[in-house]
Specification:
The protein is 42% helix and 15% strand. By secondary structure, the protein is an alpha/beta fold. The protein has a seven-stranded mixed sheet, sandwiched between helices. The chain has a three-stranded antiparallel sheet with strand order 11-14-13, covered by helices on one side. The two termini are 34 Å apart. The protein binds 4'-deoxy-4'-aminopyridoxal-5'-phosphate.
């Protein structure tokens, strides 16, 4: 029997998304598929709030979206600043270093918080004064390991004010289509994401959207891109061709996944992005309030820095991780354990993106709440105490 998948991605998919994948073999240059790809690219632009950004959709997981951005923008010796709010920020350092970047990392004073804006400013200024400003700054919009939300608009504004040539890259794997994000208005240069979270599709597609400024930086690089599959030189013409409804081949796209993504994107746009954001915010606030009313503690240090796409919750004292998670599973609901190495066994994570909040009549979140209350009670914790 299917257990409700309430982890912070992959998430439950709409029947129409799943049906879109049950398509007989279709050529990747069939006119009907090219049309689907074109609509998907145009739709993605609207989802992230850009008119001039260039979307890329490439087979692979969210991690490939990092390589797709980083390998094309970084040249050996370039400086990068990572604002890390958890495991994914820390892993971004590794990704940047793989392509030869010299990386500085800024972390919050306490895990669960966000880096201090004054410190970000100081680091940008210092790099500028040294004559080698940061080529790019990366921000994890929602770090899925901690459930921390960063104010991307404020950070981007600061970066562009202090260091105008520095590119702003946003890891939106756990935020795109759940947290408000306006690429053009906020002057973001690259949004990186994937199909399996708030976009409501199965895993398997890496997605990036690149600003004209970032494309220019790529065009004027002096050295060769150190990747074959992730090189924009290969994919940029393909994306442009698909959007213009012309066939062009570099590597076979995941035809059925792109068909699913078109449906996912169109469903979001039909609901309206503002409605989508508002619904995630309200559902998340209510869910967190319920947990706090039960006496549970959430990982982010304040409600201002708490994500609306997911919740990271500490186990109450005396409740064993394995007991709670297996009891929840017994009640038909899957949530995820903690993954941050320094806190791993002490918290769990619930995803509330896409269908579970956009179509509350399905009762996914209600079922999760009921199952969680039962599982806590069975583990010896009294939610009404
Ligand atoms: N960034 C963030 C914020 C994520 O949550 C994840 C996946 N949980 C990734 C990157 C990597 O994505 P994937 O697992 O699809 O490679």
């Amino acid at each position: 029997q299917h257990k409700l998948c309430m982890i912070p991605g992959p998430i439950e998919c709409h029947e129409d998304v799943l049906t879109a994948m049950a398509t007989p073999a279709t050529s990747h240059i069939d006119p009907s598929f090219i049309q689907v790809f074109s609509e998907t690219l145009k739709g993605l632009r609207q989802v992230v709030g850009t008119t001039s950004g260039q979307p890329f959709v490439v087979s692979g997981s969210g991690t490939l979206s990092w390589d797709l951005a980083v390998c094309n923008l970084v040249e050996t010796g370039n400086r990068a600043l990572v604002l890390s709010t958890g495991l994914f920020g820390d892993r971004m350092v590794d990704c940047l270093e793989t392509y030869g970047a010299q990386v500085d990392v800024l972390r919050p004073a306490d895990l669960g918080g966000v880096p201090d804006q004054a410190q970000v400013r100081a680091m940008l200024e210092k790099a500028g004064q040294s004559g080698t400003p940061y080529k790019l700054v990366t921000i994890t919009h929602v770090d899925t390991s901690t459930g921390v939300l960063v104010d991307v608009q404020a950070v981007s504004k600061l970066v562009k004010e202090v260091s105008p040539t520095t590119l702003v890259l946003v890891d939106g794997v756990c935020s795109v289509a759940a947290e408000p994000l306006y690429m053009d208005d906020w002057k973001i240069d690259v949004v990186m994401t994937a199909s399996q979270k708030a976009l409501g599709c199965p895993p398997g597609l890496a997605i990036i959207v690149v600003s004209p400024t970032a494309l220019n930086v790529w065009k004027t690089r002096k050295t060769k891109v150190a990747s074959y599959y992730a090189s924009w030189a290969k994919w940029f013409p393909v994306m442009q061709a698909y959007e213009a409804c012309k066939p062009l081949y570099f590597a076979t796209p995941a035809v059925q996944l792109v068909m699913a993504l078109r449906v996912g994107v169109q469903q979001l746009l039909a609901k309206g992005m503002e409605h989508v954001y508002e619904t995630h915010r309200t559902a998340s606030d209510e869910f967190k309030k319920m947990l706090h009313d039960w006496g549970l503690r959430t990982l982010p240090t304040s409600s201002e820095v708490a994500a609306h796409s997911m919740t990271a919750v500490y186990y109450p004292p005396n409740v064993k991780a394995t007991n709670l998670l297996s009891s929840l599973s017994h009640h038909g609901v899957l949530v995820a354990g903690g993954v941050h190495p320094s806190l791993a066994g002490s918290y769990f994570r619930v995803g509330h993106m896409g269908l579970s909040v956009l179509e509350p009549e399905r009762g996914y979140l209600r079922k999760t709440e009921t199952a969680l209350q039962r599982a806590l009670t069975e583990s010896g914790y009294n939610t009404s105490a």
